[in-house]
Design brief:
The protein has 200 residues and is an alpha+beta fold. The protein has a single domain, classed as Beta Polymerase, domain 2 (2-Layer Sandwich). The chain is 45% helix and 18% strand. The protein contains 6 helices and 5 strands. A hairpin with a 5-residue loop joins strand 4 and strand 5. Helix 4 crosses helix 5 and helix 4 crosses helix 6. The radius of gyration is 17 Å and the shape is globular.
Length: 200
Amino acid sequence: MKEHVETLEEKVARVLKDPVALAPYDSHWPEMFERERLHLLSCLPSDLVKRIEHFGSTAVPGLAAKPIVDILVEVTSLEETKRRIAPILEAQGYDYFWRPTFGDDGPPFYAWFIKRGEDGNRTHHIHMVESHFEHWDRLFFRDYLIEHPDVAREYGDLKTKLAGANPHDRVAYTQAKSEFIARVTDTAKRFYRKTQSSPA
């Protein structure tokens, strides 16, 4: 019997079924990032991969988060990433998506990967973008939350509320956070420009 090959629509539907479940901050999250960073450097073409950053809530000490480590990877070419990196990670069991940055189907697109543990639960989200993508602004947000625990607590409270309201709707949960993230990111960019500092 011929093995069924999962279509893109089936893959999207499958990953969207994963529940939204927050966990208390885990001191192992930075270690998980570091192990994955070293793994990516060891198996991916060195001419394509540049900086690799831990971002998102798991990068902020003390902040509750979905227990999924977000990783931002600078690549020199997204076209080459599709051709040379995606097959390597898909062969290792990662889910791969050519994903729009905004909305449902408009450019700019980037390469997004989901890594799962042996139990099938997500452990890492890997976002691969070129150096000019707006994703790098998320490092301002990360660093601002680290330096301003009161804002981090406010964000944590918001996420807890939204996760309770949208336990099975990852899209609604993410969209509901967007206004807060945009507002704090703008504040952070002004703050770091004023202090003549910048994200790592």
